[in-house]
Amino acid sequence: MKLTKWILTGVVAAGSCHNLMAGNFGAEYTTEWQTDFRQGVNWVNLLHLSYSSPTFLGMQLNAASVSIAQTREEAFMHDLQTFSNIEEENLPFALSMLGIGRETEKYSVFFGIRNVNEDYFTSPCTSLFTNSSCGIFPTLSAETPLANYPVASVGFDGKIRWNRWQFQLSVYNGTGNKQLTGKENVFRFCPKSDGILGMTSLNYEYNGSNYFMGFALRSGMLEHHENGNQRPETETAEKECARIIWAYAEQRLSSHCSLLLQYSLRTGTPTGCRRYAGAGIVVQCGKTQGGIVLNWADFVNEKEWAAELTWKIPCLKRGYLQPALHLIRNDVSKGLTGLIRFGYRIVSPLDRLPATTAHSLRIDRSMQKNRPHD
User: Which UniProt keywords apply (predicted)?
Assistant: First the structure.
C-alpha cells in the first residue's frame, strides 16, 4: 500500500511540475428532484471535478473527484435496482480518478485510482437512462464491494483497438474505498484482505450498432446485507469467487432508432443477483433523445421488474434537462417514482477533454450504483 502511495505521489508531482496551467479543468454539476408522488421530494446534487494534463513520453495525468449531497436520507421505496444512478449518501469529497495514462488510436493504458464505471457499460444507448442497472449490471455490483460509484480503488485498465474491434482488460483492488487516509483508504492494494477483481470485454462496432461481451472474476469477501439479501449476523464471512458474464447489443434499426438488449449471469456465490435482463428502445428526434427500457433482476431472495420512460433535452449550450418516470415492482413493494434531472458542464480550456478524462463519470447517466438496503 505504501508503494502504491509513493508511485501515485510521484505521478502527481510529475504532472504538477509540467506546466499545470496547460492542462484542462472541467466541472459538471447535476441536480435532480425525485418524488414518489406521496412522500414528498428528494433533492440530489452531484458535482464532478476533473483535470488532465500532458506529462512526459506522451503520457497524460488524469484526476477527478465527486461530491454528493441530498436532502432525504430514507429511500422512497424498496427498489433493489435503484431508480436513480446518482443518488448516494452525502459525501463531501471522494477521488474517482487519479493516475497516469496514454491513449493512441490503437491502444490506451491507465494506472492509478479508478473505478469500474470509468471503463465499462459506457455505450451510447445505456448512457441515456437514469436507472442504475442500465449502467453496471446488478449481477456485478450487488453483494460485491467493488470500486463502484462513489468509491474507487487502485487499478489498471488497458484497451487494444483494431478495425471495428476493441479488446479490454482491467484489474482492480477487490474492495473500493473513498477515504484518503486510514485503514480503508483509496490507495490500498491488498488482494489478500480486499480480494481482487479482474474484468475483460470484447466489443464490436458496425454501421452504428454496438455489441459487447464481457467476463468478470472477483475473489474475496462479499458484503453483508446487500441488495435482495439479508445474511444472519452470526454467519462468518468467507472468501468466495464470483464469476459474472454479460452481453448486450445496441442494434441500429434506422437512422433515428436503436434497439437495446442486455443479459448477464452470475455464478459461484450463493448471494447477490443471479440473473439480469433488459430490453429497450432509444429514439433520436432532432437534438433530443428519448427511450423506454424494461429491466428484470433475479436476486437470491427476490425478483424485481422495473421500467423507465425518459427524454433528454439539450439546453443552455452545455446543459440538458431530463425528466424520467420509473415503474417498479418486486416481492416486497410496487410503485411509481419520477425525477427531473438537470446537468451543466464547464470546461476550461473550451476544447474537449481527452477521452480518458472527458465525461468520465458519464453524468448524462452518471456512475451507476446499486444502493444497498438495510
Answer: Signal
Query: Minimal CA–CA distance to 299: which of 331, 336, 334, 338?
Result: 331
Cβ burial, residue 45 (10 Å; 0-12/13-18/19+): middle
What ranges in the chain are assigned the alpha helix state H? 2-17, 138-141, 191-194
Domain membership of residue 358 (yes or no) is: no
What is the Cβ-side half-sphere exposure of residue 55, based on CA atoms within 13 angstroms? Answer: 19
pLDDT of residue 363: 36
Residue-range definition of the domain harbouring residue 306: 2-348
pTM of structure: 0.85
Count of domains for the chain: 1
Report the 10 Å Cβ neighbour count for 38. Answer: 10
Q: Which CATH number is 139's domain given?
A: 2.40.160.10
In-domain check, residue 23: yes
Dihedral pair phi/psi, residue 91, rounded to 5°: -145, 110
Cell numbers that stand for 97 in this block: 480518478
